[in-house]
Specification:
Blueprint lengths: L1 H25 L4 H28 L12 H37 L3 E5 L5 E4 L1 H7 L11 H4 L3 H9 L6 E5 L2 E13 L3 E8 L1 H37 L5 H32 L8 E3 L1 H16 L4 E6 L3 E5 L1 H18 L5 E8 L5 E7 L21 H6 L6 H11 L4 E6 L3 E8 L4 E3 L2 H4 L1
Parallel strand pairs: 7-9
Antiparallel strand pairs: 1-2, 1-5, 3-4, 4-5, 6-8, 8-13, 9-10, 10-12, 11-12
Helix pairs in contact: 1-2, 7-8, 8-12, 9-10, 10-12
């Protein structure tokens, strides 16, 4: 600005002095008037440029920067143009960076809320709205403590101990569990991050139940075997008949533990992601005939077992796993169907060139509230009856995983007092025509 004033003074002198000299020489009477007119012209020039600058400053845009006339004002406007353009470019870059940051936060599976120094909401993503029942536009500027009224969260805010996350129930959905953590950033702001941990809690609950169930299942046979062994050690004279009875009971309990361990190992192998499915040609008609023969042996004539089968349909899969899954369903039908009941095993064509395996019985049926949980480990509708029939409580869990590895799933239909049907449909990509020797 000092440079501009200095140049203005020089310009006035350069314009005014020649005018004054000429005026005094040629027309002394009008010299001072001409001199005044020259000064006014210079001032008008600067006032005009100042007016352009003032109008532009009301709505500064680097694209509409005025062009000054004369070297002094051209330099001023050029310098302002460069400053404004640099500021607008920087602003655009910051806006784009902020947009990218918000897009990234919006795409995160966790809820993200930006809080100011007074814990008021500045921004939140969609997941935060879903987790905490917020509305981005309505709740903007509101204190998060007023919107999320939970005693533990209020205490979490007051103590300002943000090292560990806080676990609470979602305010609008008590079945959803949330992990909430505040992360300070910048000088005064905070990030509030919410995460849906419902499935993690369910897995942890299943793990606890699994450990408890395994412990319970193992404790009974071990107690039986241990008790008989202690009795036999303390007996001075063995009663052969009584000892034989004790040994038979110990053998039964040992076999029960062996079945449990084998099922646990099978289930562990099926759940291992590093254990790929070893596929082969599976002669399903032959497999069905073999399983029905085993079922007849298990039934000992107490049931009527029927086989409906398409001899032309075979599968691409793992024969050992399919035998285990289908065998579990058939043996369950035998165990839980009363005497004189009918069990029907089917291996037939399904829709769109798929193949359907099913086992139907005329047993007591299953109440609707039990059906969704039947494939859970150790879940039993009737615990006492399951143990009496030799079940481990893992059979349907094994079936579920085997079918999943073969792109199928277990379908259960049951009516109390009429019976149940357990079915699995294998996709067309796994169905093959049987070789001639197999079909024969």
């Amino acid at each position: 600005m000092q440079t501009l004033l200095g140049r203005t003074a020089v310009l006035i002198l350069l314009l005014a002095l020649p005018s004054l000299f000429i005026a005094l020489v040629t027309a002394p009477r009008y010299g001072w008037g001409l001199f005044s007119i020259a000064i006014l012209g210079v001032l008008a020039y600067h006032v005009h440029n100042l007016q352009q600058l003032r109008r532009w400053l009301k709505q500064p845009q680097w694209q509409t920067m005025p062009h000054g006339w004369g070297a002094s004002w051209e330099e001023v406007f050029a310098a302002l143009y460069q400053i404004m353009r640099s500021q607008w470019e920087t602003r655009n870059e910051l806006t784009e960076a902020n947009d990218r940051l918000q897009q990234a936060a919006a795409a995160m599976p966790d809820g993200v809320i930006i809080l100011d120094e007074y814990d008021r909401i500045e921004w939140c993503n969609v997941h935060a709205e879903q987790h905490l029942g917020l509305h981005r536009e309505q709740d903007y500027g509101q204190s998060v403590a007023h919107l999320l009224r939970h005693p533990l969260f209020s205490q979490y805010l007051r103590t300002k101990d943000y090292g560990e996350p806080l676990s609470i129930r979602a305010p609008h959905n008590k079945e959803m569990s949330l992990s909430i953590q505040l992360v300070p950033f910048g000088q005064t702001r905070k990030l509030l991050i919410s995460r849906d941990i419902t499935k993690l809690e369910q897995v942890e609950s299943m793990r606890r139940d699994f450990v408890a169930n395994v412990s319970h299942e193992m404790r009974t046979p071990l107690t039986v075997v241990g008790g008989f062994l202690e009795t036999m050690v303390e007996m001075e004279n063995y009663d052969p008949q009584q000892s034989q009875h004790h040994l038979k009971l110990m053998l039964d309990q040992t076999q029960r533990m062996q079945r449990l361990v084998e099922d646990l190992l099978t289930l562990s192998r099926l759940e291992d992601n590093q254990n790929p499915l070893l596929e082969e040609y599976v002669d399903m008609p032959a497999l069905m005939r073999r399983l029905v023969t085993e079922a007849e042996s298990l039934s000992r004539g107490r049931h009527k077992i029927l086989l409906e089968m398409d001899n032309t349909l075979c599968l691409k899969g793992n024969q050992h796993e399919l035998m285990s899954a289908c065998g579990n369903l058939i043996s369950n039908a035998v165990r839980y169907t009363p005497e004189e009941g009918v069990i029907t095993v089917r291996w037939i064509g399904g829709k769109d060139q798929s193949a359907l395996f099913s086992v139907s019985d005329t047993g007591e049926g299953i109440a609707p509230e039990h059906i969704p949980r039947l494939t859970e480990r150790f879940y039993r509708v009737d615990r006492g009856r399951s143990r009496e029939t030799g079940g481990t409580g893992l059979g349907l869990a094994i079936v579920k995983h085997v079918l999943s590895r073969h792109q199928s799933h277990l379908q259960i239909q049951s009516t109390l007092g009429k019976g149940s049907t357990f079915a699995a449909e294998f996709p067309a990509g796994r169905v093959q025509l049987c070789r001639e020797e197999s079909a024969a």
